[in-house]
Amino acid sequence: MPTTLSPSPSPLPPDLIPRLLTLYRQQVDPGALLTPVRPWAPLSDAEWAALAPLLARASAAGRPTADPRGRLDAIFRAVTLKHPRGGRACWHQLPEAFGRHDTIARCYRRWAHAGLWARLLLAVARPDAPPALRGLAYRACCAFRRGHRLMGLWGVLLARRLGLHSALPAPAARLFDPDLSESLHRAVPGVLGWVARDLRRRIRRGPLQALLRLMDLAGGRRACRALEPA
Questions:
Q1: Phi, psi angles (nearest 5°) of residue 192
Q2: What is the spatial distance between Cα 89 and Cα 95, in angstroms, rounded to a whole number?
Q3: To 5 degrees, how large is the angle CA 178–CA 226–CA 77?
Q4: How far apart are CA 223 and CA 151, in angstroms?
Q5: Phi and psi dihedrals of 168, rounded to 5?
Q6: With 0-12 CB in 10 A as exposed, 13-18 as middle and 19+ as buried, what is 155?
Q7: pLDDT on residue 192
């Protein structure tokens, strides 16, 4: 009597394994995709000249600031300070020499609502950004992630798509990933079908384990302030 062979398993979705390898890299080396830390320093003339057009759009939406360059220096100093227990410092830890911390915080929020930090993040991510602007990448990431509660999910998505993971409020593997969720939505039927067609021979644990791990990563986990990037 001829032996009936189980059908050959269908191939996995082509984008599943590359995506898994990318996420695995983030898990093993969370600092691989982070922007190098740059110690705070007052804005140079070249940096201020690169920032001024972006700031002009934000200032047009509200009350003009008497000393916008000094206010930016104060905000960048505040967002790059670290708390002794890890994560970002509180506004009241800003040294008094930069002005009242509540005034600086209000200005930061006003400019966040005007879209300044999102425009700055987009500007430093451009391949043709001038050197003075690229040098502000770390400060731009710190300023952007400080307002993650104001920006919501779209802010996380923007930082992910730009590849600026220092702008995320926690390691990427701990945050909800809408793009991965969409990829899984397309991949799940193919993976389950691939496993089901091969059940008569043996259970394929690898694809199922990969699928479950990806689902866990897509959903994110609870992240606290101490987990913010350096």
A1: -65, -40
A2: 11
A3: 95
A4: 17
A5: -85, 145
A6: buried
A7: 63
What confidence category does residue 85 fall into, taking pLDDT thresholds of 50, 70 and 90?
confident
Tell me what the mean pLDDT of segment 54-79 comes to.
83
Which has the closest alpha carbon to 207: 196, 217, 220?
196
Q: Which amino acid is at 178?
A: P
How far apart are the two ends of the chain, measured CA to CA in Å?
A: 67
- What are φ and ψ of residue 203, in 5° steps? -80, 130
The pair of structure tokens assigned to 79 is 């967002």
57, two tokens: 């759009």
- DSSP annotation of 18 reads H
Closest CA to 165 of 155, 150, 180: 155
Helix, strand, coil percentages (3-state) for the chain, rounded to 5, are 60, 0, 40
Confidence of residue 170 (pLDDT cuts 50, 70, 90): confident
pLDDT for the residue 219:
59
State pTM to two decimals.
Answer: 0.71
Per-residue confidence (pLDDT) for residue 5, from 0 to 100: 43
Count of residues for the chain? 230
CA 110 to chain centre: 21
> At 88, phi and psi to the nearest 5?
-75, 155
3-state secondary structure of 85: coil
